[in-house]
Design goal:
By secondary structure, this protein is of the alpha+beta class. The protein has a domain of 213 residues. The chain is 29% helix and 18% strand. It has seven helices and nine strands; from the N terminus they run ααββββββαβαββααα. The strands form two sheets. It has a five-stranded antiparallel beta sheet. β8 and β9 form a beta hairpin. α2 packs antiparallel against α7. The chain is elongated.
Length: 333
Amino acid sequence: MGVPPTAIVPHSPAGVFVSSLLCVGIVPSLSSEPSLAVTKPAPLDPSSARTRKRLLLVAGVFFLGLCACVATMIVAIHRFNTDNPRKLFAIKRVYEREFTYAGRPVQFVDVFPEGTPTTHKDGRPSFNSPETPADAIDVVFGSDEGGASPAARVRIPVQVPASVTLPDLLAHNDYLRVIRMVEATGTDTREVLAKMERGEATTQPDRLLVVSRVPPPLPTPEEMRTWGSVWKKRWSFDIYELMPDGTIRQERRLRYPTGGPFKQAKEGELQDNTWQFAAALTTMPQEGGIGPTVKLFNNALRAANLALPGAMFCGLGLSLCLAFAFAPPKRVK
C-alpha cells in the first residue's frame, strides 16, 4: 500500500528531494502499481532454414561417398590379405658354442690376433672380451675326421668389439645371432618351439642360421655401440645358413630397406615378409627402445590406394556440414 502524496509537504526539503527523484525515474511513482515488460525475441532469418536444408543435402552426398570409399577399402584389404598372407616364424636362439645339427657337429671358435693368450690362467679357453678381443669367429660345420666330406668353414669378422665379458656366444651379442627358425604360419608358435626343444620333426624346414649385423664403419668402438646401433639405413646383414647336406649357404651384404613405408624394397635390400627379414630383426638392438620395430613396406594400407584419402576427405566434409547445419540459427535484427 503506497503513501498518499498529500502526506509529503510539497515545499519542505523532503518534498523537494522526493519530487526530483520522481522526475528522473529513480523512485517509481508512489501512486502507480508495478508493471511487467515482455520483450519479444527477434524473428528468425528466413534464409537459415534454406541454408540448413542445403547443408544436410551436401552432408548426405559426403555420407554416400564415405560409405563407398570404406566399402572399396574393405574389399581391397581383404583381397590383399588373401593374396599376401603374413608369414609367422618361430625362432629359438642358440647360445652354446658346440652342438649337433642335422647329424653333424657345429663349433664356433674365436680367432685372436697373434700374441693373444688362447687360455686363461685357470685353463679356461679365451673368449671374445675387452681383455682378449677377437678378430673373427670361425663357424665349423662337420668334422674332418672320418667323414665322407671335409667340414665346411666360414670366418665371420667381429663387427662390434666386446664391451663386457660374457660366456659362450653372448661374447658376440652386440652384432651376432645364432638361431633356429621354423615357419609357423597358421600354427601355434609355442607348440612349434616345444617341438624344437624336444628335437621332434616340424612340418616346415628347421633352419639353422648365423646372422651378423654389419654397422657403418665408425672410428671408435664406442661410436659403433652408440651411434652405429641406431643408424639403421647404413646397416647391412650377412646371413649364413647351415644346410642339412653339410654345406654353408651365404647371403652377404643385405641392406636395411631405405625406402618409405609404402615403397617396395630395392634389389639387394631385405624384402618384407621373408625369413631373411625375420632373421635380421633378431640382431637389431632393442634395449631402451632404440632399435627399429618391424617395418611393413608392402602392407594392406598400400592396397587401399586412393580410397583411404577419399574416405578421410568425405568424413571431414560430413563433419563440417553437420556442425554448420545444426548450429544456432541467425535472427533478424
